[in-house]
Design a protein that fits this description.
The chain is mainly alpha-helical. Helix content is 61%, strand content 5%. Strands 1-2 form a two-stranded antiparallel ribbon. It has a two-stranded parallel sheet with strand order 3-4. The chain has a two-stranded antiparallel sheet with strand order 5-6. The structure holds arginine (ARG).
Length: 464
């Protein structure tokens, strides 16, 4: 051989090394080195299986396993030099292994390909990331439930169309997000369960002529079973798409909550106050306290949604089985997982230390004739007026209050009786915001004792 090729990936097929530009576009090690521990775990499981099936010798198996342990240690301690010329994490590990256990190392790649290897590695990594996000969301739910219990009776305006609708309690409002994050956790669980089949042993795409035991490697790596079809095993990226889909939904939930915090902390609402440690200032306007963390959480949803889009487009035209296009799956997955972990942590910190202005919220809850529905309900309940008609009468009284520039409960009984003669004094009992929320006793409703019970149930459902 006369060529300059020295690269273990290229083997005997090439005379020359790839040019700089080829390396630049082809190499993934800069980002896939994150998979090193999973790659080594996969290799160890594969190696143990090869030994147990008599495909490689025990001696070679031992040398490989020792070498892999050493590499794990080296990378963990920052003593490992990653080389772009070796393309990816798989070849970087294998090349080092051939230095540490020269005679044995060459046997490791028997009955295996980087195609089944990378799919396995990424699934293992994602399992860990899913568990981490689930923990993070659980912590966030716990903060929300604590705040909801503390503010179960705090009345605030409930809005629809961002207009005063009906008074609600802050506890009730916060528990709505506990439900959303509960569904996010359910989607994490579903994704984890469905991805938990092992690609290893599919080899390049067609399976292998060696008598491998795919059950054994699947079990060793904590998978429920091997994937049933070798072509599917190396070409499937549903697990990344499912993850990014649920990630996008989760990011949307975080963004909506961030938006509420931004509104609540604005000087128009002035319902809440973030501590100094979680606020930023302005370089020009000395009075400013900006909720930058909440704004960034709101913005980062754009990144996560973008990652989902990016990978859907990468995958949509790919014929079976593996295509190098699929190397582009990792950065969006890593970025979405990192972005969400940070957003969840920042959100939990803000909600832990936020202070609510209960008086100001209660005051605002009475604006906008927010108890007009209570008035209509009273007409139905006490006078037996059909709801449609009650709605009309209450509407007329709202217009009257508006004309006089007063609140609904400030209208005189006389005035009320002009709209409906049978109205009596007891109507005033339902017009205050406290009474309004107290009356919303239906399951899932906003009455303070309901909210207290709902918080206790949420603690059981989500935190135990
Ligand atoms: N770095 C590659 C990836 O991330 C590994 C698989 C490469 N397979 C191949 N046949 N070139 O997808």
């Amino acid at each position: 051989m006369t060529g300059k090729n020295t690269n273990i990936v290229r083997g005997g097929r090439f005379n020359d090394d790839p040019c700089e530009l080829m390396q630049e576009i082809n190499a993934s090690v800069d980002f896939d080195k994150r998979l090193y521990a999973h790659d080594i775990a996969g290799s160890k499981a594969h190696c143990a299986m090869l030994v147990s099936q008599g495909i490689i010798s025990e001696k070679d198996g031992e040398a490989i396993a020792d070498g892999l342990d050493k590499i794990l240690h080296e990378i963990g301690n920052g003593q490992f030099t990653f080389k772009r010329s070796l393309e990816d994490i798989h070849m970087n590990v294998e090349a080092r292994l051939s230095e540490l256990a020269f005679d044995a190392a060459g046997h490791l790649h028997t009955a295996r390909s980087r195609n089944d290897q990378v799919a396995t590695d990424l699934k293992l990594w994602l399992r860990g990331a899913i568990d981490g996000l689930d923990d993070g969301l659980k912590g966030l739910q716990s903060v929300l439930i604590d705040q909801a219990s503390a503010h179960a009776g705090a009345v605030m305006p409930g809005l629809t169309h961002l207009q005063s609708a009906q008074p609600v309690t802050l506890g009730h409002h916060l528990l709505a997000y506990v439900e959303m994050f509960g569904r996010d956790r359910g989607r994490l669980r579903d994704c984890r369960r469905r991805l938990n089949e092992c690609p290893l042993g599919a080899a390049a795409l067609a399976g292998t002529s060696f008598p491998i035991d795919r059950e054994m490697t699947a079990r060793a790596l904590g998978f429920d079973r091997p994937m049933a079809n070798s072509m599917d095993a190396v070409s499937d990226r549903d697990f990344t798409l499912e993850f990014l889909s649920l990630a996008a939904i989760m990011a949307v939930h975080l963004s909506r909550l961030a938006e509420e915090i931004i509104l609540w902390c604005s000087d128009r609402f002035a319902f809440a106050h973030l501590p100094d440690s979680l606020s930023t200032g302005s370089s020009i306007m000395p009075q400013k306290r900006n909720p930058d963390a909440a704004e960034l959480i709101r913005a980062k949803a754009g990144r996560v949604i973008g990652s989902l889009n990016a990978l859907l487009v990468v995958m949509k035209g790919l014929p079976l089985a593996y295509g190098k296009d699929m190397q582009e799956d990792k950065e969006p997955v890593f970025d979405a997982a990192d972005t969400l972990a940070l957003s969840i942590a920042a959100m939990a910190a803000m909600l832990r230390d936020i202070t609510f202005e209960a008086d100001r919220m209660r005051e605002a809850a009475g604006h906008g004739h927010a108890t007009a529905t209570d008035l209509a309900d009273w007409l139905v309940r006490v006078l037996g007026v059909p709801f449609r008609q009650a709605h009309r009468i209450a509407g007329q009284l709202v217009t009257r209050a508006e004309e006089k520039g007063c609140r609904l409960e400030d209208l005189s009984l006389d005035e009320m009786q002009k709209a409906e003669a049978r109205i009596d004094d007891s109507v005033f009992e339902v017009l205050g915001v406290e009474n309004s929320v107290k009356s919303r006793q239906s399951y899932g409703g906003t009455a303070p004792d309901r909210v207290r019970r709902a918080a206790a149930e949420a603690r059981k459902r989500f935190l135990e």
